[in-house]
């Protein structure tokens, strides 16, 4: 057992450790205290001591709390120090928590009441050189000594101060080594296809490993079926909101609900949301890949590690990502409203779009906003010549019913078709994947500081060469690949059936996809009911052409207004 005590000599501003024995002269025992406190002997009976005990895992018997406390108490008893406080941090890491440990903080807040802090070893007090230096600084400021019960140190010499730092460095290194062992163990388990804990991805479940110890992830057939059904509808151009509504009506548990149950944190919420759906469909875990910190874990050849059965094949996955990217493109977003004919109804006089408003008695009506826009232009001297529009209006509900009848009469009996990509040879996804892996490999070495030393350089060169070879092979195969085709196939329901199960946004999509375009002529005097002769309803190619022409005219007017402004 050691009797070394770290102290600050306020006269020489150097760290000192004094060996106190029964034969130590009284003059050598007296050490000056900080000027703002009364002098207290360096090691004398009656010194006020705090014992600090820390253990990362209470089950570790090699440095159990009892053993640490006994060693510290024995040192205090031998020196005649009075133990006024004992603080413990059990099941608390000294590395990950730093100085943010409850027991240590209670001691540091009472430094003015103490003369010495006693600990089993330096690594019990701090796991990093930075933390150790900070504790020494705080203690020295209050002229409080630091005493190790097991380590012989002498800070009065340069060699002694260096040894103290070396011990702290080795404590930090040991903590890093433990962390590396844990990470290495997890990586080994993942590469063996084993489950390492944490949130279970939607579409999978934890089962005993059929080939040995531990557990693995297997496909949850019920959830996988839900995923495939969702993907089919997305590729069939169904709106995400419509899909979400159907999932919630069916009571299918959301990924968040399922994952919280598997981790023991139960939730009664089964609701699906747009963010939930997008996160699920964009997660490479559907390909069986292992994701950590939002990125796939790579194999030694730089490609993503796959350690579980995939739910989607690569071609379907890439087609799905392309569709989601198309929908997320701001240039292709269309404002969703509650009106069925938004973007479809146009004024037959000026060609402007018609928007909904509440008429008398709160009835829904569509109105041309041309007059308002023309007044705004006139105020700027930009009035459009030759067109005088007084803003015709039309009843909303009856007009929507009329357009619906026209649509169902023309298309209701026809089967809904979806475009299906015929399987061809397309290596572009694998090429992109290899290019991304190559870029990540370069970042690992030059940005993240991995692959250090000679062995690291060799491993980096080997992985880089394998990736370059694979990339060259894929590009050559893509050059000679047979292209796939696109064909239309029925979804199994008619337009009438799809119309009935769709919400307003879904119905508007059906009208737009069919080329729906409606022109409204001015009303005759004295007319109270809807005069359907005012409505010119177009579908198919002509409807698409009219909408394109109207959109082009609006763009030209906007450009002209911008140039004049």
Automatic annotation (TrEMBL):
Domain Resolvase/invertase-type recombinase catalytic: 48-193
Region feature (Disordered): 246-270, 478-501
CDD domains on file: Ser_Recombinase (cd00338)
Keywords: DNA recombination, DNA-binding
Start-end of Basic and acidic residues biased regions: 490-501
GO molecular-function terms, A-Z: DNA binding; DNA strand exchange activity
Pfam families linked to this entry: Recombinase, Resolvase, Zn_ribbon_recom
Superkingdom per UniProt: Bacteria
Entries under InterPro entries matching the protein: DNA_bind_recomb_sf, DNA_bind_recombinase_dom, Resolv_N, Resolvase-like_N_sf, SSR_resolvase, Zn_ribbon_recom_dom
Recombinase domain: residues covered: 201-330
Record field: compositional bias (Polar residues): 256-270
The protein, known as: Integrase
Gene source species: Streptomyces fuscichromogenes
